[in-house]
Prior knowledge:
The complex is a heterodimer.
Chain A: E1 9-14, E2 17-22, H1 27-33, E3 57-62, E4 65-70, E5 81-83, H2 87-103, H3 108-116, H4 137-146, E6 152-154, E7 161-163, H5 178-182, E8 188-194, E9 197-202, E10 205-208
Chain B: H1 5-19, E1 25-29, H2 32-36, H3 39-53, E2 58-62, E3 74-77, E4 83-86, H4 91-102, E5 111-115, E6 117-120, E7 125-128, H5 136-140, H6 148-151, H7 169-174, H8 179-187, H9 190-200, H10 212-221, E8 226-232, H11 241-248, H12 250-264, E9 266-274, H13 278-293, E10 298-301, E11 306-315, H14 324-331, E12 355-359, H15 360-372, H16 374-378, E13 388-395, E14 401-406, H17 411-418, E15 428-433, E16 439-442, H18 452-457, E17 466-471, H19 476-490, H20 496-513, H21 520-535, H22 539-543, H23 546-554, H24 556-564, E18 578-581, H25 590-594, E19 600-601, E20 609-610, H26 620-624, E21 630-633
Parallel strand pairs in B: 1-2, 8-9, 8-12, 9-11, 13-17
Antiparallel strand pairs in B: 1-3, 3-4, 4-5, 6-7, 10-11, 13-14, 15-16, 15-17, 18-21, 19-20
Helix pairs in contact in B: 3-4, 8-12, 8-15, 9-10, 9-12, 11-12, 11-13, 12-15, 19-20, 20-21, 21-23
Amino acid sequence: MSHADWEGQAKFTIDGREVVGYKGETILEVARREGFDIPTLCYHEALEPYAACRLCLVEVTTGRRTKLVTSCIYEVAPDIEVKTSTERVIRNRKAVLELLLARAPDASLIQKLAREYGIEKSRYPLVLNDKCILCGLCVRACHEIIGASAIGFIDRGTERHVGPPIERLSERCIGCGTCVYICPTAAITLKDVSKPMPGVHKHPYDYEAPDCSICGEMNLESESKVGEK
Amino acid sequence: MIKSLADLEKVASEGERRIHPPHLKVMVGAATCGIASGAKDVIHAVEETLKQFGNGAASARTGCIGMCYEEPLMDILKPGWPRITYSHVKPEQVAEILSAVKEGKVVKEGLLGKIEEIEDYTRNTRYRYPLENVPPEIAAVENLFGLEFTAKQQHIAMRNCGIIDPESIEEYIARGGYRGLYRVLTEMKPDEVIDMVDASGLRGRGGGGFGTGRKWRYCKAAEGYRYVICNADEGDPGAYMDRSLLEGDPHSILEGMLIGAFAIGSQQGYVYVRAEYPLAVKRLEKAIDDARVHGLLGSDIFGTGFNFDLRIVKGGGAFVCGESTALMASIEGKPGEPRAKYVHTVEKGLWNQPTTLNNVETWANVPVIAVRGAEWFASIGNPESTGTKIFSLVGKVNRAGLVEVPMGITLREIIYDIGGGIPEGKKFKAVQTGGPSGGCIPANLLDLEVDFDRLWEAGSMMGSGGMIVMDSETCMVDVAKFFTEFLKDESCGKCVPCREGLSQTHEILKRITEGEGQESDLDLLEELGKAMQDSSLCALGGSAPNPVLSTLRFFRDEYLEHIKNKRCPAGVCTALINFEINENCTGCTLCVRNCPVDAITGERKQVHVIDQDACIKCGVCLDVCKFDAVTRNTRNTHSGGKSQ
């Protein structure tokens, strides 16, 4: 309720250095512009922030209160003090990375980030072995940028996974490959499922792409069907 | 249409005639708890009997008065007598009881008590029943509100539950209903209403404990089209106070919301209620319809120009939708997931507009405050936690039910004085408060005063008011595992610490209960729990480690017993225990016949034997044995067991 009563520029500090941010900007946006390193997995400049990976946590002091905040959604305000690598920040990032390493031990980005934070091996049992870390970049890109909404989240809690509606091949998939491109852990792959169509493969579904409505190059008769894993 | 106080009084006198008619009236507690105990058959029997009586004798359904352990309850109101209550009523007893009453006599069996007077908190009056010239059985029976279960209670939010027919707006008005709204609309300015609620000290009964007046003030200060919401997405296992209020007195919630709407300047409200509460939904719908018909919802209420209407939104049964931002997303038709924003919902809530969301019980308190004033309300309870709180007292306790007590009462008073202690003389071990994300409080804290802040200090929380009592046969590791599993399934799965953290916590707890745990697991659980508290996106994840952290704090030895000695002291964790038949066995074959997996062999009059490999450790043999011949070993003595 406090950070609404100002306009224009905000001067504040990140790790002791004075920086300037503008109304509506988040800490993460300013920090990255100023060259500070804050790791993220679910953030993308082109998408609405999602605040799910919890790696971008930083400590913010306003007045006498210091709290842990999510920098991708926390809007800057004058005179706040941001600290990007306090003991508490590092401890929580490590906790998140260790959990993700137990979920996706084969994802090279997770391995790399974990190593940067001094984690070689997760102490947690391997419950799932899934490259998908549910960062939601693919789902949001498909919805927010492409406008196709061909995939979404299914189930909740530990059962949560990504797939097309009612787990059937989605006719809305245009085979653009954006989900493949944006996936940080290479959990989605693109492969040809029929000639001459490109199809998008997302475990456990294959997407057959319908034709491009503008150039009309591809096979108009193509029929969508659930492919093999 | 009710437009004035005179109109209200007119409806009230009609309601009064319904509550206390000039003829025989029989009431049956017909909230979900009563119906589950067989109230529908009792109602049927009552209707059949009264049909033969004629003379205007009437039956009615009421809500739950809180004595769930005595259900089904039947109340009889005969002119000239106090209201009398029968408990555990069976349909076949009804005709006998009622015929006796008709003739001025009383069947003693099953007679639980008499109601001598009913407090009307809203109008600060008491309805006194005649106590002179009544049959000796009635004179002798105890006052229902003087029983151990009821004596320390104070029903403010539950003021009408079990007293009136919840489907009658007339009866609600006869009990002082909608007078708070009338007063607020005709005598007060919105800011004065907020000041009043603020001064009353009312804090959010949904668990957060945030000052209700403060919340309203922030919301009113925000620009936009403001909404009020009632959070009736009650989902804690074993907690049902909100359901009982909705089923027993829906108008109290409507009136509270109307007052809140006037205070913050809102014209539209929502009640978000679980679809699994069909009776609550039905009674709420009826209440909304009746309020509209009487002009208490809609436009120009009481002729003051104030407009307000309500809609019911049914939730699909996701626990996380009790979280305010997830709830609002759900109303908007989006997946019920907490949203990622630092702007409070009082500024940008439902459809990005300023929104005041309060819990059912919070709303139900508001009309009384509006009539009796802030000072009166603040005089009840503790200075920082005013008023009363409803708890659903369940688990290993003699008298389970809904308990509305002034804040500051001790756990001991609730569990022993009101709840009657632990069944079969067993030892109290812990009480779990605050639902799945609350904590377990051990015996040495029984004298803890129950209010928002004391419970937080003890590592638990008020939550919405669940109170699960556990005895010496409850394994605390198993309890932590149970709640963690519940939360694991109910987490929305959006953020990493909550989703992955719960999954791993559950996995570690599972291996401890299976005798596969290591000592280092305990530190890992604590480390993970603290990280989840710190870094989760919403309050569900932030409080999800509480069951583990609080049991680790108070019952660490029990964890260590599982890990070091492969022993479950409470005899619960099946991998660590086994059952054996000792020489007390007379060879009666009762256990053989009851064993669901045919794991017991033995001839008649010979000592029986349990096949340890086939045994699923359900404990049925122990339960049925009449000769103390079955031993439950808290350490698995069978060498083939998994834990060896």
